[in-house]
Design goal:
Blueprint: H1 23-47, H2 50-60, H3 74-102, E1 103-105, E2 111-113
Antiparallel strand pairs: 1-2
């Protein structure tokens, strides 16, 4: 095992500091998560289970709304998944950039949280 992989050899001052992240990768992950979530919703609509799920969710939240799930349309499903991926990508990139702004490198090269 390399020394860098052994956490017990790291000085205590290096441990517990926030790490910088790749903002674009964060965007891809968040975009993929939102796209998958909405692809699952589209599958529920296609299977005819979405209305029952909506009715249950409203019921357990003590709500009654006149919502009707429309028939499945592949074009609308692709648009839904694509738009939610793009929104998630943008949100993840912005959050990744904000995260990286919130952490900074000390003169020794260590990353520290906030401004001291």
């Amino acid at each position: 095992m390399r020394e860098a992989d052994n956490f017990s050899t790291r000085p205590v001052s290096d441990m517990g500091h926030a790490m910088r992240i790749d903002a674009f990768k964060a965007g891809l992950v968040f975009g993929a998560f939102l796209a998958l979530w909405h692809a699952c919703w589209s599958a529920l609509v296609a299977l005819g289970w979405a209305q029952a799920l909506i009715n249950f969710v409203l019921w357990v939240h003590f709500m009654s709304l006149p919502l009707k799930v429309e028939p499945f349309d592949i074009t609308r499903a692709v648009i839904l998944v694509g738009i939610t991926f793009a929104i998630g990508l943008a949100m993840g990139c912005i959050l990744g950039l904000l995260w990286n702004v919130s952490v900074r490198r000390s003169p020794t090269g260590n990353i520290t949280a906030g401004a001291n």
